Amino acid sequence: MQKNKIHTKMIALLLAIIICITTAGCSTTKELPLNEITGALPSEMAEDEKNEHTNSNTGMGRYLEKEVFVYENQSVIDIQKLADGQLVLFDSILGNYVFDEKQEHYELEEMSWLKEQATSGYVMAAAISKDGSIALSYHVSPKTDEGQAQNTDNEQGTFQWNIQCFLVTPDGIKIPIDIDISETEQYIEDFCFTETGRLFASTRGNKVYEINTEDGSVKTALTLEENPMYIEYCPNDILLCAGWDAVYLYDLKNESFVEDEVLLDFIKENYTRIEDYGERRYNLYLFGGEPNIIYLAGEKGLYRHVIGGSSVEQVIDGSLTSLADPSHKIQSAVFLENQEFMVVFSDHKVIKFTYDASVPTVPNDRLVVYSLEENNTIRQAITTYQAKNPQMQVTYKIGMEEDGVTREDALKKLNTELLDGSGPDVLVLDKMPIDSYIEKGILMDISGVAEEMNGENGLISNLINPFYREEHLYMMPAEFQIPLIAGKHQGLENVTNYEEIADLIESVREQNPEGDLIGKCSENGIMKTFFMICEPSWKKENGSLNEAYIKEFLQQTKRIYDAQMNGVPQSRKEWYDTMSEYWPEEYGTEYENNRYFNSIKNGDYAQKQIQLICGTNWYIADYAGLWSTLRIKGLEDTQIKRMDGQSKNVYYPITLVGINASTQNYEKTALFLQTLMSKEVQELVHYGYPVNQMAFDSKLVPDMELVQEDGAFSWVGSVDEDGNSFDWVVYWPDDVQIQLLRDLVKQSDTPYLQDVILEETVCREGAKYLNGSQDLDAAAKAIMDSAAIYMAE
What we know:
By secondary structure, the chain is α+β, with helices and mostly antiparallel strands. 27% of the residues lie in helices and 28% in strands. The chain is built from 22 helices and 39 strands. The strands form 9 sheets. Strands 27, 28, 29, 32, 33, 34, 35, 36 and 39 form a 9-stranded mixed sheet that branches. Strands 2-19-18-17-16 form a 5-stranded mixed sheet, with no helix packed on it. A hairpin with a 3-residue loop joins strand 25 and strand 26 (349-360).
């Protein structure tokens, strides 16, 4: 079985890595002389040819896409244009898919030797050459007993793979590759053939090897400053090595590196870096085209760059294609004849991009969608809507996209546009003043839109009904999360309110004088963990705050804070502080404000670094991981239940959408909301479970290709703050566990609508109470006074 390796970026791992900076012994750096560039982009056609299709207002011509193939397996692939003109996609489980481009038809050429290999392991890396030869790195499954695979002793449990590498000729002859993978290099990351058939391989170390295709012997070709995630060949004998922080261009003829600051600056400015999300899923893929030309495919589109040139030009606008779709990443891409391109995506789709001079360069009709922060579920909906409505251009505006723009700045600008009638058509209302917008008539009643979504696109009614106000519906969520609490301590099954949560945590501290209880090590972090199960009860029907409830929240939170902090190890505090410093630098948001801060911490609990899980569950793999902790020695008696606080049956709705009452495009805007709520998009939501009933049901059915007979379907690897690795197996939930999740969703009827200003006030004043610098009455009064001013505005 091919494992789903979940890669978690942890600061401890980054701190533990020592980057070895070396250079190839005989290499120098120089500028690459440019040869004549052959071929021109369709967008560079003669003006008189373009003008045949243009009018005075709109330019004509852009790339359109077509899905030409969906491959079956979650497998390592490579795509290659063979010397005889055939286009071949290599599937490391089934064989070669051979395309007939004119007929847009494919046939599968099975390989008996590949089927034999697939019975005992899987292919980690592969490449196919112009003559049809295939290079493979094959990992034989580890022979470990069940206990070791589950890491029941909570010790380091890294799997030991038996790695075999070989080259298979077009007539099926196997040539073993004599490569010694060191412990630091771990395994082959990628293979690459040149046009003339030279074969190169990169490892998890920083070396690239050349492999003799006659006898399988290996020699070091070059040494980099970091390990390349993938390697590609660019015509004119350039080997492209895509690293995490840099792209290395190596001139194979002159055995020297080629400088290209323009290329590096473009990547840094537009993508920050190239990222590998596991199983050959990249945010940016670079590949060769004509001699001396590199193409870059990513969410922003497809770009062309002449090596050593002064610019990077856009060929395809990503916002008008599935390149911008966040539900998939790029696995591979190839340049075809007639300036066409083929891209292989991680969701098994193969898309062909062809230039059409008869369509407008920019669609004539326009729809504007707005959110304060970037939202990948919205991007997914835009991509789907755009593909089905090519005459429309959906513009996505993000209020806080630019550095330094605060929430207040973005809202001030948005409110000005809304009041003068120039605002966006669709509003994503997360962290916005929703009540104010409803009172001022900014939001349209969308009850009719919701009522039309029945049948296949029916929504989970108990998650939508609480949003109705006097039979009017001004917004609805696209996804949701469920707060859960889990642990192996007696009494947890009887916890039904916030005071009892505080009782439980104090009891756990009594039983464990030292250790991290809940994984949060600051006043704000602990308050933010429990806002969602308490805040829905704070507001009265008239909109004012219930001071007694706020006082109770502060009192019980202080009990939790004292229990957690009086005994938490200094190392855990330092780790928490390090994450607080690292997160803004890496992701641009505060650690305690990021979307994942309150997600359930299965890994910490599985490694017994925390005693209780208090957080939200929002996707099935995490739910499965939570139940799988019961298979770990010492955690067999773990209990899992809904986390209730001052409020009961709470759910956290995410991606709240509404329509601007001033929109001039109601029908098209309503269609966008229906697209967002459709099963097609809902199956790919990013921050929670779908609110579409059929999409939600589909999440509870496993992909049987990935599930073994014993229920195992993924392997989780993580690293703690000390650099120790930990591996454990995740099992698909059984019928009882799945039914429990269904019941939790069905019972949910109290939405937590985050009030950012209120929470900031409670954190500011509540922190002083928790750390003893302010008494309870003073903290409550300060909160009430600030809230009164805020609500009056």
